[in-house]
Design a protein that fits this description.
Layout: H1 4-10, H2 14-29, H3 36-48, H4 53-65, H5 81-84, H6 87-95, H7 102-109, H8 118-140, H9 143-149, H10 173-187, H11 194-203, H12 212-222, H13 227-230, H14 233-236, H15 252-255, E1 280-281, H16 287-298, H17 302-315, H18 320-324, H19 329-343, E2 346-347, H20 354-359, H21 362-373, H22 380-385, H23 392-422
Parallel strand pairs: 1-2
């Protein structure tokens, strides 16, 4: 039940790692509305949506450690209907969160033998979003591939003992040692990025803008006729696949018992012929003004931990890399963040989406979209190849932005649906 590969990667940014571990520990091991075995089973269901054996195996062990019924591990047919009823919201949040409605919430909360309370549902929603987003990080940094293939050599585990990840929190000697060792790495996370700097500077003098729908339209045109897998074709061309589709490494066959409707996946948010799709306007419902207070009221203190984590990843942009290049760190960070939210139909009225195409090279955009929307199609060679001028710690930084932007997107849709139900 350990997260060594994940903590090693996040350890390049020790302040973020500390915040992440506190949130993970609180979600899984501290007082809350859900029983401990159910928390880990929900995590299994969430990770299975992306065929993430790394996280599934982790939570299977912790599920049993928490006293969970081994029969549940035979699949969804063997779990209580109350848990099984989470299937729909798990599936939608993982792949197309904009489809969540107050009717989904109402169905789970309706009075019956298997009804959920609001507090339980909020806990479950945070768990689902957390594990979906963490699966993106696991695949994006190669943790899944290294675990499944016995190690490619790109991940070199720290020799800091074998304590459970939940013990590596602030104040714990293991956590402090991990932070100390990795702090030196994070201080050396800068390098020359002339082309990026030039593109950033041009933004200040170029005012022509396009809206985010045009950005999405361009992405679709670039991948037209290729389907979902085509989005990563440029990166994966000529690379050996992670495993055959029926192979054991992907775990697709092994994990099938933990999900229904396995063919349900990500689709581009708003096609121009689908007028019924509503753009999510952050000005109308935001984390800061709406989501934070709701989640904190129904699941005490988790809002503060999540907010700290969102702020921590935003603060990482104040790095020596950007300062030395003479550009605003927030510009690059916001470009990635808003591009990810754009793929989920979330719009910022005060943002010029032309910046995305100026800041992000196409190969980087393909990488971000793959890790965000269908991380199971990522392989570790992609991580090695994207933005070779970036150091490893800076690539991890990009994956942390993906993790947090994706998690916040899922939470915004789910919490808005809960708010609409309550109203």
């Amino acid at each position: 039940g350990r997260l060594e590969a994940v903590t090693q990667q996040m350890g390049y940014h020790p302040q973020y790692l500390d915040s992440f571990l506190k949130t993970q520990h609180y979600l899984m091991h501290m007082d809350g509305p859900l029983p401990f075995d159910c928390r880990h089973y929900i995590a299994i269901m969430a990770a299975a949506r992306h065929q993430c054996r790394y996280l599934v195996n982790l939570h299977v062990l912790q599920f049993l450690r928490a006293g969970g019924d081994p029969q549940w591990l035979r699949g969804l047919e063997f779990i209580p209907p109350k848990l099984r009823n989470l299937n729909e919201i798990n599936k939608i949040l993982a792949h197309r969160p904009w489809l969540i409605t107050k009717e989904h919430i109402e169905k789970l909360l309706k009075i019956s033998e298997w009804s959920w309370s609001l507090a339980e549902l909020v806990h479950a929603v945070v768990l689902l979003a957390h594990c979906h987003a963490l699966a993106s990080f696991v695949f994006g940094c190669g943790c899944e591939q290294d675990e499944g293939l016995g190690g490619r050599g790109s991940l070199k585990p720290l020799s800091l003992g074998t304590q459970c990840f939940c013990e590596a929190t602030a104040g714990n000697s293991y956590g402090q040692e991990l932070l100390r060792i990795n702090r030196k790495r994070s201080l050396d996370s800068c390098m020359e990025l002339d082309s990026l700097r030039e593109r950033m500077q041009r933004i200040h003098v170029e005012t022509e803008g396009r809206d985010e729908m045009r950005l999405l339209q361009q992405d679709r045109e670039e991948g037209e006729g290729q389907g979902a897998e085509g989005q990563c074709s440029d990166l994966s061309a000529g690379l050996s696949p992670l495993a055959d589709t029926d192979g054991e490494v992907t775990g697709a066959t092994n994990l099938a018992c933990y999900m229904q409707d396995p063919d349900f996946g990500y689709q581009d948010f708003a096609r121009r012929d689908e007028d019924q799709t509503q753009v999510f306007r952050v000005q109308d419902y935001s984390w800061e003004d709406h989501g934070f207070s709701l989640v904190n009221r129904l699941y005490s203190d988790i809002g503060h931990l999540l907010d700290e984590k969102f702020r921590m990843v935003d603060g990482l942009q104040s790095s020596a890399m950007a300062k030395r290049q003479g550009c605003e760190p927030s510009v690059f960070k916001r470009g990635i963040w808003n591009y990810i939210h754009c793929m989920f139909g979330i719009r910022y009225d005060d943002y010029d989406y032309a910046e995305v195409n100026q800041l992000l090279e196409r190969m980087l955009k393909v990488y971000i979209k793959t890790v965000t929307c269908y991380p199971e199609k990522t392989n570790s060679e992609m991580f090695d190849r994207f933005w070779k001028q970036f150091k490893h710690s800076e690539k991890v930084h990009v994956n942390l932005l993906i993790l947090e932007a994706r998690m916040q997107a899922e939470l915004l849709y789910a919490l808005q649906a809960i708010t609409q139900y309550m109203i």
